[in-house]
């Protein structure tokens, strides 16, 4: 167990160090920090410095108790080695290489967008204890019920609408799932997912599922995985009553995800309204498509274990 915790700490710090280097390259920061003053210098490579405060700022507080002295020493040494390689890459002008420059710009864009979203969500998507309790009371019956649904996952709204129309014209849901669904975990079962309760998966997907009556088929539902057509198969009492204290943390995360989705959707609508956007999606026809539902490695919206 201790080895596993140490490995986790090592992975986290390695990733954070890599991100720090990416920031210095793409955002044009000097080394990994040259602000000396009264700060304690943990490492130095020529004029690039890593201060103790900078090192600590890159490690989430919840990870710090997992770190050993050896973990920290290894990653400070890795920072120094990485600076040497970084200096050599810059000396060779790789940042101006026509093959490398677009990759750096993409990384720079992703970092800035990630930071923008992180700050915006941290400020506006907070969920209080009162919010959690109110949501639980409103959906208490859902936590006492397990449902089983089948779904068909595809990559475009047009595909989903075509499949939905086939189903409504008496098409066989299970056969259509086997033929077209991208969710490899459920495709061969005709799209059937394991029984689940509220709070087990993607919020938009769950909301659509719990709104269905027995045997009912949904309209097209969009999630981060793609576009779904969902059918309610059955429902039953949950194996045990889930009390708020048992799921409070999971529920808070679930509610934050829902709130973030709502905020992002609204924000995107505002940004789109003030921009000129042109999408020439017909050009995608020139790309050889994968076989329907085959070998995509796509996953579905429920991170659930084996059927119960």
TrEMBL record:
Q: Which PROSITE patterns match?
A: PPIC_PPIASE_2
* UniProt keyword list: Isomerase, Rotamase, Signal
Record the organism.
candidate division TA06 bacterium DG_24
PANTHER family, alphabetically?
Answer: FOLDASE PROTEIN PRSA, PEPTIDYLPROLYL ISOMERASE
PpiC domain location is 144-234
Q: What is this protein called?
A: peptidylprolyl isomerase
Determine the domain of life of the protein's source. Answer: Bacteria
Might you give the EC number(s) for this enzyme? Answer: 5.2.1.8
Q: Which Pfam families match?
A: Rotamase_3
